[in-house]
């Protein structure tokens, strides 16, 4: 959408329109309804003037200093992150803390911050769908469908946490794990696997981020392998012990554990594309997906061989 402005010399000069932050927020909330966020979550606008124009939007997994640096250097008006800056209530945003300091930097630079967390996990073309697409799942559905909306209405059928689907062709656990490693951003953790590497896998469940609370849903779905992040020793051990007790050493679900950051990063491209499309009639917006790795781990030392 382009307006025109008349100069004193009576010539017409095009003026490019940009959507307001309030308009961008409404559009984000149509894509990722806050009502689908978990009750403990903190989503929505963190900083920013709803009346300001938005020309550039940066998408990132984490609201951390290096992402703020990138946004300010690029001249972004808004950062959209997956993870919240403040997940618990705070009583001060003084710049005496690292989070308070980040807020002050963003406000001084005129950069808004918006968070789409578990509502983006659950949404169609959200975190779960992006992860499922990255590793090639078809015929998929939510692992845990979304409950009814607060007004009693139904969410779209594809709304819910995680996805379960199938590979177009069965493969070995080894080859599948390699596919996952190739599809996701490189991290120091890489990909950890629990199970018989030569076993055949076809049905796959995925959850972006920390997913060991959903083992029961994975078992109920009949998945051969589960891709998620942040797997802890005891839950993972118990799941594999139960699988072997009930189905033998080749019994699933097997586990593919990836870095939390890596499991959620594919969504950023979907979010940037979908928001740009929805804003097309409201004005010109430039988007960028941050490629700065915000995974906190910086090195991995392999175990030393034993004699």
UniProtKB/TrEMBL annotation:
InterPro entries referenced in this protein's UniProt entry, alphabetically: DUF34/NIF3, DUF34/NIF3_sf
Listed SUPFAM superfamilies: NIF3 (NGG1p interacting factor 3)-like (SSF102705)
Keyword terms, alphabetized: Hydrolase, Metal-binding
Gene3D superfamilies the record matches: NIF3 (NGG1p interacting factor 3)-like
Pfam families associated with the record: DUF34_NIF3
GO molecular-function terms, A-Z: GTP cyclohydrolase I activity
Superkingdom: Bacteria
Xref: NCBIfam families: YbgI_SA1388 (TIGR00486)
Similarity section: Belongs to the GTP cyclohydrolase I type 2/NIF3 family.
Subunit structure: Homohexamer.
The protein's name in its UniProt record: GTP cyclohydrolase 1 type 2 homolog
């Amino acid at each position: 959408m382009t307006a025109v402005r008349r100069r004193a010399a009576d010539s017409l000069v095009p003026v490019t329109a940009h959507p307001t932050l309030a308009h961008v927020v409404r559009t984000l909330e149509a894509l990722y309804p806050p009502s689908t966020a978990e009750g403990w979550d903190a989503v929505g606008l963190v900083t920013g003037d709803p009346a300001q124009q938005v020309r550039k939007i940066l998408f990132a997994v984490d609201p951390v200093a290096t992402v703020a640096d990138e946004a300010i250097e690029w001249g972004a008006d808004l950062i959209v992150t997956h993870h919240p800056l403040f997940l618990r209530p705070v009583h001060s945003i003084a710049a005496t803390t690292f989070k308070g300091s980040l807020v002050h930097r963003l406000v001084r630079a005129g950069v808004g911050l918006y968070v789409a967390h578990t509502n983006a996990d659950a949404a169609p073309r959200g975190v779960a769908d992006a992860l499922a697409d990255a590793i090639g799942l078809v015929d998929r559905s939510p692992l845990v469908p979304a409950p009814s909306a607060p007004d009693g209405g139904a969410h779209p059928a594809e709304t819910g946490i995680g996805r379960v689907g199938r590979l177009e062709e069965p493969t070995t656990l080894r080859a599948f794990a390699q596919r996952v490693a190739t599809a996701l951003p490189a991290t120091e953790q890489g990909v950890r696997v629990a199970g018989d590497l030569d076993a055949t896998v076809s049905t796959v469940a995925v959850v972006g981020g920390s997913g060991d609370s959903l083992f029961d849903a994975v078992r109920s779905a009949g998945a051969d392998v589960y891709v998620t992040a942040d797997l802890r020793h005891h839950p993972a051990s118990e799941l594999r012990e139960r699988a072997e007790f009930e189905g033998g050493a080749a019994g699933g679900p097997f586990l593919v554990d990836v870095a939390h950051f890596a499991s959620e990063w594919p969504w950023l491209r979907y979010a940037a594309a979908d928001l740009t499309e929805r804003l097309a009639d409201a004005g010109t917006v430039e988007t960028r997906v941050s490629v700065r790795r915000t995974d906190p781990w910086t090195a991995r030392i392999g175990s030393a061989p034993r004699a």
